[in-house]
């Protein structure tokens, strides 16, 4: 059974940083591209970032480019999202998900999500 | 960027057919994916590449696309189908995935 356990969310002040982790099990992590998607009450689902199975290619949404960094450690079966220069509008539930390929993909399996609140 | 438009809500009586639409410019030329999300849970893919169903998804769920509209059809609706449904496509202009705003399905 595919399991994606997301952790690292919490309350952070504007301008602060946070690192999310997504621990994967139940599948061969190193063969899957992985993605982060966030959800806000007002704006629904928003794609954040994707990383290739090897970690060599990464892509970002315009709203987080230059502030967020996606990475992975295939030896630990873990995906990361380093979030810097956080803004109030980054407040959301963050999900990690497997994607079926690096481009033109869909989100195959989702983790339960972690809440990130950016507020002073 | 590419915009997907979904009705905020759809209501249907048990046993009837629900149709949830997803509008987009020439969406019929794109691959459309549909997700179900229940309160407090992560989304789950119910339809991928227009009309394929993952294992374990009932045959009552089907997808179709034509022109500027994609449709998720739920036959013989059950109370357990009550959820939010999101469509998603690949925006070839930005090379990013895009989601619709979601539709809340209410079973009367």
Question: What's the short version?
Answer:
The complex is a heterodimer of chains A (120) and B (108). Chain A has no helices and eleven strands.
Describe this structure in words.
- The complex is a heterodimer of chains A (120) and B (108).
- With 120 residues, chain A is mainly beta.
- Chain A has strands spanning 3-7, 10-12, 18-25, 33-40, 44-51, 58-60, 68-73, 78-83, 92-99, 107-110, 114-118.
- In chain A, strands 2, 4, 5, 6, 9, 10 and 11 form a seven-stranded mixed beta sheet that branches. Chain A has a four-stranded antiparallel beta sheet with strand order 1-3-8-7, with no helix packed on it.
- Chain B has 108 residues and is mainly β.
- Chain B is 0% helix and 45% strand.
- Chain B has strands at 9-12, 18-23, 33-37, 44-47, 61-66, 69-74, 83-91, 96-99, 103-107.
- In chain B, the strands form two sheets. In chain B, strands 1, 3, 4, 7, 8 and 9 form a six-stranded mixed beta sheet that branches.
- Chain B starts with 8 loop residues before the first strand and ends with a strand.
Based on secondary structure, the structural category of chain A is: mainly beta
Radius of gyration of chain A: 13 Å
| Rough outline of chain A | globular
The amount of beta strand of chain B, in percent, is: over 45%
Helix/strand class of chain B: mainly beta
Kindly report the oligomeric state of this protein: heterodimer
Q: Using a beta-carbon cutoff below 8 angstroms, give the protein chain pair with the largest interface and the number of residues from each chain.
A: A-B, 19 and 23 residues
Helix content of chain B: under 10%
Percent of residues of chain A in helical segments? under 10%
**How would you describe the shape of chain B?**
globular
């Amino acid at each position: 059974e595919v399991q994606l356990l997301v952790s690292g969310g919490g309350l952070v002040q504007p301008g602060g940083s946070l690192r999310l982790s997504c621990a994967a099990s139940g599948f061969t992590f190193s063969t899957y591209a992985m993605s982060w998607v966030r959800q806000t009450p007002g704006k629904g689902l928003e794609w954040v970032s994707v990383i290739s199975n090897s970690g060599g290619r990464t892509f970002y949404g315009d709203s987080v480019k230059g502030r967020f960094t996606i990475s992975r450690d295939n030896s630990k079966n873990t995906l990361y999202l380093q979030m810097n220069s956080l803004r109030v509008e980054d407040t959301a539930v963050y999900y990690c998900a497997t994607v079926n390929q690096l481009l033109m993909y869909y989100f195959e399996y989702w983790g339960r999500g972690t809440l990130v609140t950016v507020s002073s | 960027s590419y915009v997907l438009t979904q009705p905020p809500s759809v209501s249907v009586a048990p046993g009837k057919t629900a149709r949830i639409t997803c509008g987009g410019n020439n969406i019929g030329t794109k691959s459309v994916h549909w997700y179900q999300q229940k309160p407090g849970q992560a989304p789950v893919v119910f339809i991928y590449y227009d009309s394929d169903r993952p294992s374990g998804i009932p045959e009552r769920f089907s997808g179709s696309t034509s022109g500027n509209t994609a449709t998720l059809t739920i036959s013989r609706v059950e109370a357990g189908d009550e959820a939010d449904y999101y469509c998603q496509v690949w925006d070839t202009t930005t090379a990013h995935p895009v989601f619709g705003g979601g539709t809340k399905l209410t079973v009367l």
